[in-house]
Structures are given as C-alpha cells and as structure tokens.
Specification:
The chain contains 12 helices and 12 strands. It is α/β, with parallel strands linked by helices. The protein has one domain: Ribonucleoside hydrolase-like (Inosine-uridine Nucleoside N-ribohydrolase, Chain A). Helix 1 links the parallel strand 1 and strand 2. Bound molecules: beta-D-ribofuranose and calcium ion (CA). The site of calcium ion has 7 residues, from loops. The site of beta-D-ribofuranose has 15 residues, from helix 1 and helix 6.
Length: 313
C-alpha cells in the first residue's frame, strides 16, 4: 500500500519532536507532505525553528516546514514554558537549523494541498492548538470534505484537564478553533490525555532510547529527561507522557489503540470550564457522534514501535 499522505501541524515541544521523528522514520507508512508550525507550547518563532531543528536531527532537511498562525483566533496566546522550557525543546543541546522555512503561509499550504491532492487522500495531524487547521477551514470550507481524516492530540474525558482543572492544553489555548474543527464534518480521531497519560517513558524505556547510541536516540532520551520532571511532580507518574507521538503511532499501527465513536463538543462559553472536551463517552445524549475518542493504548507495543523506528534515523 502507498504511504499515507500527512500534514503535521505542530508546536514543538519535546513530545511533538518525537512524533515528527517517528513519522520521518517511517516513509513506507507515512509521506510527510509538510510540517506546519503554530504558536502553542512556545511562541511561533520558536515552534517553527524547533520544527526545522527536528527535521535536521532526523537527517531530513529537505522536509517542507511552513510558518503558520502566531496567535489563537479570538484570544491571547497561552504558552507552556513551565513544561517544555524556555526554548520549547529544552534538554538536548541541538544546533540552530540551517534549512529555511518555505515561502508560503501554513494555512495556504494546507488549503492548496487539500485542493490539489485527490479527494480523501490527505490526513491532517494536529499536535498543538488547532488555530492553523481552523483558519484553513474558515477560509476554505470546501476543504472539509476533501480531508481523509484528522488525527489529533487534544482533550480529555476521564483525566479532565492539565492546564486548568477542566481543560487540556491544546484545546484550551484555542477553543474557538477546536470548536470549528470538531464541527467540520471530517472524520476525526482524538488522542486525549486518557490515552497519552498511559504512554509514559519509564526509566527503562528511556534507557532503550539512549542505548540506540545515535544522535536521535540520545536527543530523545535527553528531551524526556527534561520533560518528565513536570509530570512526575504533578501526577507522581513514572515518567514523561509522550502525548503527540500517539498520533503518528496510530497512523502506523492503529491496532495499538482502542476507543469509542462518540459526540465531542468544545466548551467556549464558560470561564470556569473553557476548552473542556465534553465527550459523551457513556452515550447519555442523542448528539450525533463526530469523533473517535481513544481511551486505551498498548503502551509496550507503542514503545517497541517507537524504539524500532527511531533506531533507523
Ligand atoms: C499537549 O500540550 C503540549 O504541551 C504537548 O506538546 C501536547 O501536544 C498535551 O496537553
Ligand atoms: Ca504539542
């Protein structure tokens, strides 16, 4: 089967970086048409730079990286340096990139690609706030019907929130954008905190990355060394959750994940629960299902895949 065409929309972020590395290491499964940067974990100048750093770390400087939206649709940007560090990619010491950004806005790239590729052949992989994707849908509503699938990291049901008691970071930062995306009618698969908090880099798993002995293996181990302190302190968990790689792993090995096709609505009106993903997991409403909301992961299988693929870079 031909590799699946994807656009990775991202705000790197250590876990975004691992998601990108996994995709770039898997050309037989995934054809990365482009990487679109968005403001999120850190401001846009850093997320776009980090995307380039990661492509060069992977040895793929020919990857197309586009700069996108620098602020949410209707709100001030909220960032997460408290999790990811000042650069967004704190941990390893990686050289500044030499590759240059594409001379086109990320939103234009998304629209043009979805219009020019055969209908239903391009999957969007949002790993950050949904600003770029929602802006594309607002500007070009015709693209909604051309998207093969949107597989995104965001939201939570059982785990509720990480940036507020009720909301997960990616959805909270731009809830208006999330509302547009969840209402667009394209097939959506969601990797919420309920799943990603089970994808934990234990000491043993991180040693396996380090033991690869390659620049990529060592950098990933150093990223999680840095990134894990936040979740260990907050949740008492065994290590860093690899949120965003769940998206690219799903595209390679969907059987690692299980979930339910349900209705998911985004709260945009309440200050208290802003950005909450109101997921009808128990089917207590008659609202139409609009997303496959994952609930579980085969974590050992996920880390086996990740380690095997990262070893190739
Ligand atoms: C999400 O927010 C970011 O901090 C991570 O990169 C991930 O995409 C987890 O809530
Ligand atoms: Ca992210």
């Amino acid at each position: 089967m031909a590799p699946r065409k994807i656009i990775i929309d991202t705000d790197p972020g250590q876990d975004d970086a691992v998601a990108i590395l996994l995709a770039l290491a898997s050309p037989e499964d995934l054809d990365v048409l482009g990487i679109t940067a968005v403001a999120g974990n850190v401001p846009l100048p850093l997320t776009q730079k980090n995307a380039c750093i990661v492509c060069e770390l992977a040895g793929k400087p020919e990857t197309k990286v586009f700069s996108g939206c620098d602020a949410p649709i209707a709100r001030k940007l909220v960032t997460a340096e408290h999790v990811h560090g000042k650069t967004g990619l704190d941990g390893p010491s990686l050289p500044d990139p030499t590759m240059t950004l594409q001379d086109k806005h990320a939103v234009d790239f998304m629209i043009e690609t979805l219009r020019s590729e055969p209908e239903g052949s391009v999957t969007l992989c949002p790993l950050g706030p949904l600003t770029n994707v929602a802006t594309a849908l607002q500007r070009a509503p015709d693209i909604a019907g051309r998207i093969q699938e949107i597989v995104l990291m965001g939201g939570a049901y059982f785990e509720v929130g990480n940036i507020t008691p009720a909301a997960e970071f990616n959805i909270y930062v731009d809830p208006e954008a999330a509302k547009i995306v969840f209402g667009c009618g394209a097939p959506i698969t969601v990797m919420p905190l309920d799943v990603t908090h089970k994808a934990l880099v234990t000491a043993e798993r991180n040693n396996a990355f380090r033991a690869l002995g390659t620049p990529v293996g060592v950098a990933v181990a150093e990223m999680t060394d840095f990134f894990e302190r936040f979740d260990k302190e907050k949740y008492g968990s065994a290590g860093a959750p690899l949120h965003d790689p769940c998206v690219t792993a799903y595209l390679i090995q969907p059987e690692l994940f299980t979930g339910r096709h349900i209705n998911v609505e985004i709260e945009t009106g309440s200050d208290l629960t802003l950005g909450m993903t109101v997921a009808d997991w128990w089917g207590v409403t008659d609202r139409a299902p609009n997303a496959t909301f994952m609930g579980d992961i085969d974590a050992d299988g996920f880390f086996a895949l990740l380690t095997e693929r990262l070893a190739r870079l």
